[in-house]
Task: structure prediction
Amino acid sequence: MTPNQKAAHTRRRNSVIEKMKALHVYKEEFDEGIERYVQACEDYESAREKWISAGSPIVSDVVKGDGSTVERKSVLFQTVQDLRKEVRSAELELGMNPKGLKAIQAKGLDAKKTSKLDRILSG
Result:
């Protein structure tokens, strides 16, 4: 990673953390997931740029073993789709979209589980 790329990565990571703090869903335990999310975003942007510069092909011709040709999703298009799904999944897990935020709020970040013994002793 070049120094510029590293700086951009750090800025994006810090931006994600600030957004999560603003939504009251940030915890240090999420740092590994945030790192994966940031990397997935960078991979998605890179793949999308390559796909666009290649002319945005959705399908490409593939030669089968018997010499016939069939149309399949282009590898770049499939990569962009897969990375987009990965980014959306990470956003959901981190509470960075409405559905994910609602799920996290429903569970409660700081909800502490009480043991059966504690429930019995508290009456």
Notes: The first strand starts at residue 59 and ends at 63. The CA atoms of residues 16 and 52 lie 26 Å apart. Helices lie at 3-22, 31-53, 75-93, 98-107, 116-122. The chain has one domain: 3-122.
